[in-house]
Design brief:
The protein is an alpha/beta fold. The protein is 40% helix and 20% strand. The chain has an eight-stranded mixed sheet, sandwiched between helices. Helix 5 packs across helix 6. This is Cof subfamily of IIB subfamily of haloacid dehalogenase superfamily/HAD-superfamily hydrolase, subfamily IIB. It comes from Ornithinibacillus halophilus. GO terms for molecular function: magnesium ion binding; phosphatase activity.
């Protein structure tokens, strides 16, 4: 393997939204052996970069599900924004069912209705971590809002002239999300993915993780057969299908495990570190 691509939430990050020391050490060990590492995430660049730098990892980042690719130095080298017409299509269909959207633009993350945002995000946390209390879920949502620098505005029309890379919706009503997905899934130039059972993420069709990772690998002269990718949810499928060594997290959904040749430990058990360690050992065995 010449390149490792890892998702963040549910993969490299644990339940405390942190990169463990064990995971960071294995990434650094791989880098020392000449293997490249890239983070591939639905998060915006600033958020992903901060989390990685906290443990001393500076690397290229493919963010917003593949909409933007940044070098380790923070230079934007590829982007795929949503078409204005497609943004309006998603907005109009979402408003029909009173579904709340979050906008990821060239200048930041924007939303309306702060209290609703916190409630719906807290509900998402409760679904993925049913053992936590409602109060802790709300606190987690508030901390997420602060860390992601979500800006709340009265009228979303204020930012529609900006370049928009991703739209995101959270909802505890899975029927509404399912209906929204079914009505929009055949729209041209629109990619719909999900990083949890309670959200939908909308990007340009060329902003999928798999497309962005393939482009990144090609720029390095690396064949996809020499890439290991690690993920846990539906928005990771496009890259897992393309690489030579797809790895599912122990906490991954069944659809992800089904397409991976290997399942590692969970994100709270340093699964990324185990996957990298196994890959390095396998490489040593093959090389004698």
């Amino acid at each position: 393997m010449k390149l490792i691509a890892s998702d963040l939430d549910g993969t490299l990050l644990n339940k405390n939204t942190e990169v463990s020391e064990e995971n960071a050490m294995k990434i650094k060990e791989a880098l020392e052996q000449g293997i490249k590492f890239v983070a591939v995430t639905g998060r915006p660049y600033e958020s992903a970069s901060t989390l990685l730098k906290e443990v001393g990892v500076t690397c290229p980042i493919i963010c917003l599900n593949g909409a933007n690719t940044y070098t380790a130095e923070g230079d934007l080298i590829r982007s795929a924004a949503l078409d204005p017409e497609m943004i309006q299509t998603v907005r109009q269909r979402s408003m029909k069912d009173n579904i709340h959207l979050v906008y990821f633009t060239e200048t930041g993350v924007f939303s309306t209705e702060k209290e609703r945002f916190i409630k719906e995000l807290a509900d998402t946390f409760l679904e993925s971590m049913p053992n936590i209390s409602k109060e802790k879920a709300i606190l987690g949502a508030e901390q997420f809002m602060i860390k992601e620098h979500v800006q709340f505005i009265d009228n979303i029309e204020e930012i529609l002239q900006q370049t928009i890379y991703k739209l995101l919706t959270y909802s505890g009503n899975k029927d509404k999300l399912s209906n929204l997905y079914n009505e929009l899934k055949n729209e041209q130039n629109l990619a719909i993915s999900s990083s949890s059972g309670s959200n939908l993420e909308f990007n340009h069709i060329n902003a999928e993780k798999g497309i962005a990772l393939k482009h990144f690998a090609e720029q390095l002269g690396i064949d996809m057969a020499d890439v290991m990718a690690i993920g846990d949810n539906l928005n990771d499928v496009s890259m897992l299908r393309l690489v030579g060594r797809p790895v599912a997290m122990g906490n991954a959904i069944d659809a992800v495990k089904a397409i991976c040749e290997y399942t590692t430990k969970t994100n709270d058990e340093n699964g990324v570190a185990e996957a990298i360690g196994k890959m390095l050992n396998d490489t040593k065995v093959r090389n004698g």
